[in-house]
C-alpha cells in the first residue's frame, strides 16, 4: 500500500521503474540494505500482533463471548480494526519523517494488507450473514443507504492497492504505481464518512470524531509537507534566478 517498497529498492526508484541498485554490503552486524538483523523478527512480531483482532473474535466465538447479536459484533469489530490499520498505515510516513527512523517503511506494506484483510472480513460478514450472498439485495442496499455506499466505495478502492502491493507490480507500473497508491487518502476520507454516517443515525459520534481527528492530522500533515516543499522549491528557484 501507499508507496510501499522493501529490501534494496527505494520507493522512488521502483516507482520510476528504474534499475534496482543494492548498496554495497556493510560490515557484519551493521544495518545493510536488507535492513537491520532484527528486522525479520520484528516483522514476525508485528504480523502476530496484527492477528490479535481475528484471534479475539475466534476466542469469543468459541466461548460465547460475541454477545446477543454476534453478526453485529463481528461486523463492528472488523470495521473498526480496518480503520485502525488504515490509520497505522497512514502514520508510517509522518512518523518516519519526524523520527528519521526509515526502517518503519519496511512494515508499511504488511500493515496496509492487514487493513485490506480486515476490510474483506468486514465485507464478507455483511454479504454472507446480512445478505446471504444475494448480490442484487446488496447493490440495492449500496444504492439506498449512504453509509453502505461510502463503505463499499472505500472497499472497492482498496482492491487495486492490495492487488498492486508487490514490488514486481510497483516496478511494472512505474510512476503510475505511486499515483494509484494515493487512492489511500480517498479511502481514509471515505472510511471516516462511512463511520460518521453510521453513528450519526445512532447519535453517538464520540469515536467517529476521534478517528476523524486522527485522519485529519495524518492527511493534513501530508498537505502541509507538500505545501512546504513547494514553497522551498519556489524560494530556491527564485534564489537561483
Ligand atoms: C475500507 C472499508 C471500510 C471501513 C474502514 C469500514 C469501517 C466501519 C466501521 C468503523 C464501522 C463501525 C464499527 C463500530 O460500530 O464500532 C462499520 C460498520 C459497518 N459497516 Fe463498514 N467499513 C468499510 C467497508 C464496508 C463495506 C464494504 C460494507 C458493506 C458493503 C460495510 C458495512 C458496514 C455495516 C453493515 C456496518 C454495521 C452497521 C451496524 O451495526 O449498524 N462496511 N464499518
Folded structure, characterized:
Helix content is 73%, strand content 0%. The protein is mainly alpha-helical. The chain has a single domain, classed as Four Helix Bundle (Hemerythrin (Met), subunit A), CATH 1.20.120. Helix 10 runs antiparallel to helix 11. Bound molecules: protoporphyrin IX containing FE. Residues 78-191 form the Ferric oxidoreductase domain.
Q: What's this entry about, in short?
A:
This protein is mostly helical and 241 residues long.
Number of domains: 1
Fold-level CATH name = Four Helix Bundle (Hemerythrin (Met), subunit A)
Query: What series of H and E elements makes up the topology?
Result: HHHHHHHHHHH
Multimer state = single chain
Work out the radius of gyration. Answer: 20 Å
Percent strand: under 5%
Cofactors, ions, other ligands: protoporphyrin IX containing FE
CATH class, please?
Mainly Alpha
Shape field: globular
First CA to last CA: what distance? 39 Å
Instruction: Give me the secondary-structure category.
Output: mainly alpha
Helical percentage: over 70%
Tell me the total number of β-strands. Answer: 0
**CATH architectural name:** Up-down Bundle
- The low-confidence runs, each spanning 5 or more residues with pLDDT under 50, are 2-30
Keywords:
globular; single chain; Four Helix Bundle (Hemerythrin (Met), subunit A); mainly alpha; binds protoporphyrin IX containing FE; transport; 241 residues
Amino acid at each position: 500500500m501507499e508507496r510501499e517498497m522493501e529490501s534494496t529498492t527505494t520507493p522512488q526508484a521502483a516507482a520510476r521503474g528504474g534499475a534496482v541498485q543494492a548498496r554495497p554490503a556493510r560490515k557484519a552486524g551493521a544495518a545493510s540494505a536488507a535492513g537491520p538483523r532484527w528486522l525479520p523478527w520484528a516483522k514476525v512480531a508485528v504480523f502476530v500482533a496484527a492477528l490479535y483482532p481475528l484471534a479475539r473474535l475466534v476466542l469469543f466465538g468459541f466461548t460465547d463471548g460475541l454477545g446477543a447479536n454476534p453478526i453485529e459484533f463481528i461486523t463492528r469489530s472488523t470495521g473498526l480494526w480496518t480503520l485502525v490499520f488504515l490509520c497505522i498505515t497512514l502514520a508510517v510516513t509522518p512518523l518516519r519523517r519526524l523520527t528519521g527512523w526509515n526502517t518503519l517503511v519496511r512494515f508499511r506494506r504488511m500493515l496496509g494488507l492487514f487493513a485490506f484483510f480486515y476490510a474483506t472480513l468486514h465485507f464478507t460478514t455483511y454479504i454472507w450473514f446480512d445478505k446471504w450472498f444475494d448480490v442484487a439485495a446488496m447493490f440495492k442496499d449500496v444504492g439506498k443507504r449512504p453509509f453502505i455506499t461510502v463503505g463499499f466505495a472505500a472497499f472497492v478502492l482498496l482492491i487495486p492497492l492490495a492487488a498492486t502491493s508487490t514490488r514486481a507490480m510497483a516496478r511494472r507500473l512505474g510512476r503510475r504505481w505511486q499515483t494509484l497508491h494515493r487512492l489511500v487518502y480517498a479511502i481514509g476520507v471515505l472510511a471516516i464518512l462511512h463511520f460518521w454516517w453510521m453513528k450519526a443515525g445512532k447519535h453517538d459520534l464520540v469515536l467517529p470524531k476521534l478517528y476523524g481527528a486522527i485522519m485529519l492530522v495524518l492527511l493534513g500533515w501530508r498537505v502541509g509537507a507538500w505545501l512546504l516543499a513547494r514553497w522551498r522549491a519556489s524560494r530556491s528557484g527564485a534564489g537561483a534566478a
